[in-house]
Design goal:
single chain; mainly alpha; Tetracycline Repressor, domain 2; about 0% strand
């Protein structure tokens, strides 16, 4: 997932082709630069040009990775969202939607034994600015819509007429956000995967799948 994707370990990228490793390194450099500058100057005291200069890339390169400076901080990555949707789509049809989504999320962040300092700092910066909090919520909402659509696809239902997929995605992502806040408040005392798993276990155990659709 985009916002969770920023938690993956840098050394996990060694399996990627060189070109992809370079792109990942640039994305991470832009995220770090945006976070550091906004922490020091505030959101409205930082421009895209400032972030690009701090990451030693051209401003036009910035837009190859993020649509806005806010996205650089919250870690919005459409490719990571597509990858998570594909992980969910690939889960066995015998798994309930909450269980399949839980596994897909945890698989997406599996390489996350990295130093959590960068992620902790980004979460602190996000929480310190209400515009960033709003943007963070917006991107989580887009994630919910994509995952709800995949859940409906797995169930053979229409997401517009069967709200079950939205219920599962919304509840699961709310658990993710709660887990992230708890993890941040603890200073990253436990691995993020362990904190997420404990929260997602509660959701997966309780969202029983209705026959047909949710009315």
């Amino acid at each position: 997932m985009h916002m969770l994707q920023g938690m993956t370990a840098a050394d996990a990228s060694i399996q990627l082709p060189l070109r992809e490793r370079k792109k990942q390194a640039t994305r991470e450099a832009l995220r770090r630069a945006a976070t550091d500058l906004v922490r020091d100057r505030g959101l409205h005291g930082v421009t895209v040009e400032d972030i690009a200069a701090a990451a030693d890339v051209a401003p036009r390169t910035f837009f190859n990775y993020f649509p806005t400076k806010e996205d650089a901080i919250v870690g919005w990555d459409p490719a990571a969202l597509v990858a998570m949707a594909d992980l969910l789509r690939a889960r066995p049809g015998t798994e309930s939607a909450p269980v399949a989504l839980r596994i897909a999320i945890l698989e997406a962040i599996a390489p996350s034994d990295a130093d959590p300092t960068d992620v902790l700092e980004r979460l602190r910066v996000i929480r310190s600015d209400r515009d960033l909090v709003a943007h963070y919520a917006l991107r989580w909402g887009e994630t919910e819509r994509v995952l709800a659509s995949v859940i409906a696809e797995r169930r053979g239902t229409d997401p517009d007429s069967d709200p079950y997929g939205h219920l599962v995605a919304a509840t699961t992502l709310a658990a993710c956000r709660t887990a992230l806040l708890a993890w941040c408040a603890s200073g990253g005392a436990r691995p993020i995967g362990d904190v997420l798993a404990s929260h997602l276990d509660v959701v997966a155990a309780g969202l029983c799948e209705p026959e047909g659709g949710l009315r």
